[in-house]
Structure formats: structure tokens, C-alpha cells
Amino acid sequence: MALQMQTSGKTQRCSRGNSLQHSVHRSIATTSSLHAGSANSLTLAPAFTLPSGRRVQCAAVTDKLRNWFGGLRTPSPSEAAAAETSSSGRQAAVRDGRDVIVQYYEAYNAGDIDTIAGLLAPDVSYHDMIYEEPFQGREEVVAYLRKVRKTVPSDLKFVIEDVTSGDPRAVGITWHVECGDGVVFPFSRGCSFYTLDPASGQITAARDLVESSMKPGSSALKLLGALTPLIRKLGPNADPSTLKRLPLAAAGVWAFYAGYSAYVMLSTAAPGAPAYNTPPEVLAEVFYESLNFFYVNIGLAAAGLSPVPSVPCPPVSEALFNFVNAWSLMALPYMLADGASKKLGGEKTLIAWWTGIMFLTNVFYIPYLAVRAAPEPISEAAAAAAAARGKPALPPPPPADSPLPDWAPYFGATSLAVGLFSIGWAAVGRPEYGDLAQRVSYAVDTFNTNRVFFAFVVDSGLYAVWQAVLLKDAPAGYRFVPFFGMAAHLLGGGKARASDEEGGL
After folding, report:
1. What is the pTM of this model?
2. How far is the C-alpha of 70 from the C-alpha of 30, rounded, in Å?
């Protein structure tokens, strides 16, 4: 049997050759696989393409296919409309990113952090540019937002000025902050950029940029022009992440230690004689005060027990000596629990450092802090992985802090008792040393003439700073109240954390 085909106005004979048969069978097989079970909805145009690429018209083949599939027809208008509605419904399921971000700000202004948590992806990254590092993960971001809400007054509200729309993946927004009855807060303008997961509608990345209160103007352009040649010369080393590999913090602490040693220990400009020329009577006084450590020997002598002779010293000097040592005592639990201190060695090494602090205060305390501030060691595996990527390996973050030892409250109680007793001892101890006015006069005169007394006073001021370093996660009331805040935190076992306190940042 032969088939008649029209090609470019000419009639061609079409036999049952293998080429045409193969093309027809392939068309049938393809159509069958695509429309199995729904033949009535198929539409087949009476044209197909030969292997040569020529378009031909073959009514016989079309009729044959209609017979095989039981009749092919074009979908009715109602069916086409239903299909279009279904497709539109699937597209409507993709939420406009603008709606997500507007809901985010409305929830924040209402203090509804739980709603915000639902808008954040589990692995969200949020970088408020006033911080060096971004907050990673939903839990960390939500904890930060809760602290912010607890810190700022409740009437501070974000007011959206403009926000992009029509994109389910990326949103930009400009805003400012108002307080009270629509009062615009100074320097509160900002912009934020958000990346979302179109499938879930959750925020995967956010970046906040807040207006600077400093307005350098054209001087910033001059600074940029001056720095550009240096940045160009440094190349990749100008990347801020490179600075993390450098022991800048440790170098700063070591530099401070050099200045401390030069002035407090060795300088002739500071009050009293330098350490290498300490008068014998000052050395003797320090020795006797050491024998009266924590007033134990004084108490034994008062009870008629004198295993070691108790030589009276000026009560103000005794009180200062014991107060600083009680402060030193409280450092040990924090040193053992501190994650950044683990690079110094094990527990025995840290106890050795602490023993030096107990005897010579900042002669050991500052070097300990310098080593602690050094970057964390890079493992061989991390270095190899970075080398494979052609990038420098960055130091890992310090290990997480451990809980304070179970005996930490005893150290807090002991130090608190010694500290309170020292204050009373300085005021009324050893009545033969005069009244309060005479003791204050003694303290001022001794500060200006005795290098050891002067050093203990300086150490007390520095200890307040070191306390803030070691209690980095404690609420401000514990962290920044010298001595007594540290003692109170230890009494509570160190369980109080800034994240648990009102306004704790």
C-alpha cells in the first residue's frame, strides 16, 4: 500500500520503508507514554517530521492514530480553564518575599519573637553590622533578638519606609526607628537585605546596616584614597578574615604587660623605689603580711595559738594585701572553665598559672591573659583542607566554656568573707593605729611612697578589668561590679548568664 504526501507542492510516494515506519512507531510510542490513560484529551496535528527534517502532511497516518487511541480531541474551554486555574494555584503557593519581611517587622514591633522564629530558616545567618561576626542558626538569632527586645524600651518601633516586592527570594528594605508618639529617633535610619527560600518562605540570610552617628563627610573619601594603595599592595592579605590568623589581641596584651612591668615594677617615675631596689623594711612587711594570709595567723594568735609568730603590720596594708589575694582566689574556677584557656594546657598547668597569680598578682595574671588571647591552634586536617581550596586556614573559635566546678561556690564564699573582713579590718582593726581619718592619711601617704602598696592598688583596678574578661557571659551586674559581683556569681555556681537576664547583652 502506498501513501500520498504533499511536500513543497509536489506529490511523493511513501512506502512502508524502514525509515518511515520507524518514525511513525516512535511517534506512537512517545505519544502513548505521555498520554497513557488519558487518550481522550490528546490533540494530534496531522503533521510530523521525517528523519530528513522535512515537514509532511499524512492524513492516512493521522486517521490510523485516531483509530488506535479511540478518537483524539482538543480540550474543551472548561477543561482548559480548570487546568489554568490549577497552574495559577501552584504559582500562588510561592509567597512574595515582601509579605514575609513585613510580617517579620510587625512581629518584632509587637515583641512576638515566636512568630519571628517561625519565619527564620533553621540555618539562617543574621549579620548586624555593628557586630564583627554574624549570628548563625535560628536558635542563636532568636536568642539575640530576645535580648534586644529586653534591652531597648518597648516603645521603640521600626517604621518601614520602602520595601521591594515581587521577588520570593530577595527583599531590600529601608527603615527608621521611632519612639513615643511618632518621634523619630536620631541616627536611626537603616537598610536591610534579606534572602529567602522560595519553597518555604523562610529567611535564610539577613544583613542590617544602621546609620552611623559619625559623619566624616569628604574626609572619608580622602581616607579611602590614602588607604587604597596600601590595600592594593596587601592584596588578599587585606581581607579582614586574615587578621584572625594574626595574634593581634595577644600582642596587645603583651605590649601592655611590657608597659606595666616597665612602669610599675622598674620605673623610677612611679611612687616608691623600683622592685630591684626595694627597701628591706618593705620586704619584711610583705613577708609578715604573707604569714597573716587571710587573717588565719592573726586569729590563732588571738586564741593563744601561735605556731607561726604573728607580727603586727599596719591594718590598712594587711587589708589591701588580703583583699587582692581574695580576688585572685576567685580566678581559679573561671580559668578552669574558660574555653579559651584550654590552649594553655590541662588543669595542672592552669593551677600552676593561678598559683603564680596568688603570689605575684599581675606578674603572672597578664601573661596568662596574653596566652589566652592568642588564636586557637589550627589542626592539620583544617590546614590541609584550606590548602586544597587554595585559601589560608583560619583559626577555629575557642572551645565552649565548661560549667564552673562544683566547689566554685566555696571559693566565692571564702573570698566574700575575706573581702568584707578586710574592709572592716582596714577601718577598725588594731585600734593602736588610730582612727579612720588617720588610716586614710596613712593610705594616701603610703600610696605615694611605697611601691608595693602602690602596685597593689594598681592591681585592684586592673583586676576589675580582668573580671569583666573572665565573666564574659555573666550578666552585667556580676561582670562589672568589682570583686563583689564576681563573688556573688560564684556563690550561684556561675549559672547566671547574660542571656537569662533582663537587658543582658
Report:
1. 0.67
2. 17
